[in-house]
Amino acid sequence: MKRIQLGEFEEIVLLTVGILHGNAFGVTIKDEIEQRLDREVAIGALQVTLRRLESKGFLKSKQGDTNEARRGRPKLFFEITAYGKKALDYSKESRDELWKALPKLVLKLK
Fold first, then answer.
1. Distance in angstroms (rounded) separating the CA atoms of residues 74 and 67
2. Which pLDDT value is given to residue 102?
3. What is the dotted CATH code of the domain comprising 8-108?
């Protein structure tokens, strides 16, 4: 099986979709990341990342209802797949291993 690797922004997006469980669509994902991380997110970069994560099998999407405020276009809701959870687990375990290997002296540097 090939390794599951996530880029930093991919990991942030996956985690945010999990946080918003059931209410994760473009605008809510963007707003949640910006609020929690005090980091601006370009909607175009987010949309490209969501599509990439979906094509890798880490996310799946489904269309919501249409409404007049969106000119009849449905919202596209995202949720994490089992493979996406596995990718997050791998990412966390990898980072934890690196943190454990970091000498305590390094953390005290100023």
1. 7
2. 87
3. 1.10.10.10
Looking at this protein, which amino acid is placed at residue 107? L
pLDDT at position 70: 61
List 2's β-bridge partners, or say none: none
Helix (H) or strand (E) holding 95: helix 82-101
The packing angle between helices 26-37 and 43-55, to 10°, is 110
Spell out the domain ranges in the chain: 8-108
- Torsion angle defined by CA atoms of residues 81, 86, 92 and 97, in that order, rounded to the nearest 10 degrees: -170
DSSP annotation of 20 reads T
* Helices 43-55, 8-19: crossing angle, 10 deg rounding: 90
pLDDT score, position 106 = 79
- Residue 75's alpha-carbon distances to 15, 43, 64, in angstroms, are 20, 14, 5
Mean pLDDT by 10 residues, the chain (110 residues): 81 98 94 97 96 96 76 85 96 93 80
- Identity at 90, one-letter amino acid code: Y
